[in-house]
Design a protein that fits this description.
Number of strands of chain B: 1
Low-confidence stretches of chain A: none
Mean pLDDT of chain B: 80
Helix content of chain A: 25-40%
Oligomer: heterodimer
Strand content of chain A: 25-35%
Number of strands of chain A: 9
Shape of chain B: extended
Distance between the termini of chain A: 24 Å
Radius of gyration of chain A: 21 Å
Strand content of chain B: under 5%
Order of helices and strands of chain A: EEEHEEHHEHEEHE
Largest sheet of chain B: none
């Protein structure tokens, strides 16, 4: 069994020495893989997988493969890539030269008086949180998305989280993006912003 | 890990609620036995119900915003939605599902909810 880490272009730069990696060629694409280290799923194994993908990402464009994707052998890896060649090539084009940055914003949790105040209180709380979401969309998400090539919002986790989004940002725009996050953070004293990355383009690799 | 933080507060506590969920997700995602299949079906059904619930709730909020409803109607609507919300939470809990499990990735269209 071999474990897949990423789909990249073939040929590519030399592979990092983090794991016994190989690039299995499938036309102009490569499935980057290593012998599977057993089937046990652990946080440590997930972290190892992530480190390999990040090392690969440093000097090449890639589509990260979901952790735990195993195939029988090289031939099966080639078949898997061949079957989706057009989608994979198009997805690789979309993320070329860019990385994923994640932004989350938290505010003060709602005071929760909806619980006590019955049906009307419940709806009032909902309306307040819808309004807060709307205002975060305008004041944070829109300006950030304008600096990004693509963006993907996820449902924020109540009660305090107001924004949870991923942005596909050109490698040479990471600095500008981070500075914008810092400015937006300054401008909104009631919110705290967390920006992490660069990550492999997990949210934008769906072919 | 800290080298991954491009911008953030000194105290990351407000963002740390994530970690238990991550561990849960890891232990859940590898389950393909009978129970896992039932859970998958429940997840799909509850996702659809949750979609309808959210649509109706938004519709209600719009009507209230428009001022077309009496106090009493608002109270009744609110209680109904509150009950529905509680019931969904119970069902989710029964099947061991998190709030964000009730969603579908629609590819280029983004997420369903």
């Amino acid at each position: 069994m071999i474990e897949l880490f990423a789909i990249a272009e073939y040929p590519g730069p030399p592979l990092p020495a983090l794991a016994p990696l190989r690039a299995v060629r499938a036309g102009s694409l490569a499935a980057i893989c290593a012998p599977a280290e057993g089937v046990k799923v652990t946080p440590e194994a997930l972290w190892r997988h992530e480190q390999v993908v990040e090392a690969l990402m440093e000097d090449r464009d890639l589509l990260p493969v979901r952790y735990g994707t195993l195939v029988d052998d090289d031939a099966a890896a080639v078949r898997a890539v061949d079957a989706r060649r057009d989608e994979l090539s198009a997805a690789l084009d979309r993320v070329r030269g860019a990385v994923e940055l994640s932004v989350r914003a938290v505010g003060d949790p709602e005071d929760g008086d909806g619980e006590a105040a019955g049906g009307r209180g419940y709806l009032r709380t909902k309306m307040r949180s819808a309004a807060a979401q709307e205002s975060v969309t305008l004041s944070l998400h829109k300006p950030l998305a304008a600096l990004a090539r693509a963006d993907m919002r996820r449902s924020p986790r109540p009660p305090s989280e107001l924004l949870r989004a991923a942005y596909l940002v050109d490698r040479d725009a990471i600095g500008a993006f981070t500075r914008l996050v810092a400015r937006l953070d300054d401008r909104h004293p009631g919110l705290q912003l967390l920006c992490t990355g660069p990550w492999p383009p997990y949210s934008f690799a769906e072919a | 890990m800290s080298r991954k933080i491009l911008h953030g507060p000194d105290d990351l506590e407000p963002f740390a609620g994530e970690l238990p969920h991550l561990t849960d997700a890891l232990s859940r995602r590898i389950n393909t036995d009978q129970e896992g299949l039932e859970r998958g079906l429940a997840q799909l059904v509850l996702t659809i119900v949750e979609l309808l619930r959210q649509l109706m709730e938004r519709q209600a909020l719009r009507r209230i915003d428009g001022g077309a409803l009496s106090e009493e109607q608002v109270e009744r609507l609110g209680s109904t939605f509150m009950e529905l919300d509680k019931r969904m939470e119970q069902l989710r809990h029964e099947f061991g599902l998190e709030e964000e499990d009730l969603n579908l990735n629609l590819g280029p269209l983004g997420n369903l909810l």
